[in-house]
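Continuing the series of single-chain predictions for the mutant panel. This is the parent chain; the variants come on the following pages.
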Amino acid sequence: MVAYTENTPADSSAPDLCETSCVHPAAVAKASKAVLTGQTLTQLADFYKLLGDATRLRILSALAASELCVCDLAETMQMNQSAVSHQLRVLRTGRLVTYRREGKMAIYRLDDEHVASILATSLTHIEE
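Parent structure:
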């Protein structure tokens, strides 16, 4: 392992390292105040875990276009209703989707505009 000192250039194969050791106290103090901790950190990590599944993202993208009953979602996803229902339960627990009953049908939609906005912003970032 190479020890870096203030004037030792970093290995050129490691461009993500500083070439010198220099701490900026004001920047560190500001960043330290912004670092998420505790329950907020855990909730946000759990939220992103929900979005980390391709099937759930497919369901969310379909619901961003239109409210759908479970039958329509299953057809759209080319999955059986049981598998779709399981994923919807996970998304509902995470407060990403909600539903209403119309007779014997469960009609799902995104929980709120924040979910649609997060999906749209993420997609914009990916497409850059």
